[in-house]
Protein 1
Amino acid sequence: MKKIYLSICRVLAAIGFLHMSAFGFSEGVDYITLETPIANMNKTLIKVFSYTCSTCYEDDKAEKTDIIKEIESIVEIKPFHVKTQGIYAKEASEIFAVLLIKDRDNGITSIFDKNSQFKKAKMAYYNAYHEKRSKWKIGGESFIRTGLNASGLSMDEFKTLKNDPRVKELLDMWDNNIAEVQNVPVYVVNGKYLINSKKINLTNDLAEIIKELADK
């Protein structure tokens, strides 16, 4: 009987393996479907982040080039910044939105491009907050200048671009779709499939689950 039991266990384990191989990741376990999808996000990966998030910082600092290239061949990566985390989160969102539009105008399509002004500012804030433990002066101008100096954007240009309708549209999109987000990073494929980062190995499995969900 013991031998039969062990044989059954092996068969069941094999069936489970084949099920996973054939059908991939499971809804409700590896990802959930949002009740209210984000419109016009087909073939995209939304990454919700905060400059105060240590996991976000470590992930971006590592910049696993092979994985990034694989993901960018499947979807367009769209960063959404949370303006409710950190004393200057609102200012950070404005700067990031301005620089994403500025990058677009400069023909830079990847947020990982070495010439991306968005990337330069983001890494400057990460470094200042997590490595230098910067507190910045009350009022926010010194915080703003940290990102502007790193990106090469002047204060006057920032103030002008901040009123660009495209910047306001981007900020409204972030506010309307991630207002309730408490823990970051958050990954959403096609604006509707939220990846369970507690179940998914973000180093080994991220590209595979994105590939599967992008085709749903």
Note: The longest helix spans residues 2-23.
Protein 2
Amino acid sequence: MRCRKCDHKAVINMRQHKLALCKEHFPQWVMEQTERFIRKYRMFERHERLLVAVSGGKDSLSLWDILWRLGYQADGVYIGLGIDGGISYSDTSQRLTEQFAAQRGLQLHVVDIQEEYGSTIPQIANLTYRGQGKPCSVCGLTKRHVMNRVAHQGAYDVLVTGHNLDDEAAMLLGNTLTWNAGYLLRQAPVLPALQGMARKAKPLCRFYEREMAAYALVSGIEYIYDECPHAAGTKSIYYKGLLNQLEEERPGAKLSFYLSFLQAKENGLFNEVFSTGGEADDLTGAGGVAMHPCPTCGQPTTTPAECAFCRMMAKVTR
């Protein structure tokens, strides 16, 4: 197959776009599309300071590379989770992230969970779930808390994550199957800032996972190939499998599913349920949900008592 732009050999064929591109024009296309999505969804401006959450995987490192090449002020934050998997999964991902930052002269904040809180993510899961261990929920809660804290303390305008279209479509499918209106309301390419919490943006939300893997490969980005050892059997992977089957039969199905959802929200899908819409101001969250500062950490929470993270860590301390 030949590149649509120069007739050289294509490195990727994107059936959903009816577009094949070579190793020179594909990265250019990715950067152009990223810039377009940033502007379309009003994610951030050139003068704003960005904090990119990086894990050592293809999506987050590719995103940081793209923002760097586009000229944005983007620093990174890596969270050491203390997860093992043969050769330590966390050690490898941290090494690759630090290597990436050093090669480009970028600033990287490193937060080690065990050093900060005295336990690794698997240990916290065992301590707080009575030995049953639910590391994925503990991991997500901890990462969100730490990322928000680093962004707030560093006076960053926007916290940027590398969620791709496959991630977004799988999340959407799971929340639609249970009609979880709260989560559906909060799913968007960009979420406005709250008092004590930076704006959040997902510039890769319209890129397929295979497109980001191709970008990392063509750009020479070394990343950790293995999935987290705790990810096997999770619902998100199951939903991704279902969507992949659909995509095989109907190229572009994932993108259509996600974009149709965003259009439905824009057309007032939740208006009757949440009369104030999806904007947030000060300590009012999406849909007009009242937020309160956690008395322990100060981060916004929907309860007047301690936030979920602080309650969890109190159990660890006990």
Note: The radius of gyration is 20 Å.
Protein 3
Amino acid sequence: MAAGYDDRDGKIWMDGTLVDWRDANVHILTHAMHYASSVFEGERCYNGKIFKSRDHSARLIQSGNLIDFELPYSVDEIEAAKEAALEANGLTNAYVRAVAWRGAGEDMGVASAKNPVHMAVACWEWGNYYGDAKMKGAKLDIAKWKRPSPETAPSQAKAAGLYMIATMSKHAAEAKGCSDAMMFDYRGYVAEATGANIFFVKDGEVHTPIADAFLNGITRQTVIGMLKEKGIAVNERIIMPDELADFEQCWLTGTAAEVTPVGQIGDFNFEVGALTRDVSECYEKLVRV
């Protein structure tokens, strides 16, 4: 069994310094721990190159702005930090986690404008997010929690607080023997999985929910571009729950998930069909160019 994430060999980049993995700690009164004032990125490095690395770095800065703090690092400086972390750990194929947060400081209430913003980068080897689901298709529960309105939370921020209901939904799904859960949005429309976007296939065309109440993932955008280059129609639209019975194939996209087929959502079954496999294989080739 692998050691816990707090008990590993290696280095973590923290505010410009490479720190021993076990010493990469923050104070108990760090604002992010109490009020979720934290944003992050999940990225994958393939053969020594992080896929869409600068896009991820730019989104980290944007996410900070959306939850009302400014990162003290530029895109170039974030890029250098990620490269330093990978080199220090001797990794060329890895998952990369960049995180920025409001730390401990003069403020310890809801407001935190006086507290400094910190950043760290950790990287480690990580296989398929959904295990063998890449071959046979993931089994998804249907979550009771819904993605909130953009008037309630900044849905385009990759912010820690937005994942609380995702964690609860995934725990409930795993308790039922599922890999993950599909979530509806505040209107009752199909939205996404707990940490991945979702696509469906019907009559040779692809359908995916409009990303207006959840994160428009970088992998999602990449896959849509791939499909359009192949001449496959992509319909970004409202998808109602009762449409699930009519779809033939389904897959999830995300940096961790990559392209993962879905075999079942609740009582609805899907085939791991030719288009799903083709998209998965093409994505695998693209990220390793």
Note: The chain has a mean pLDDT of 96.
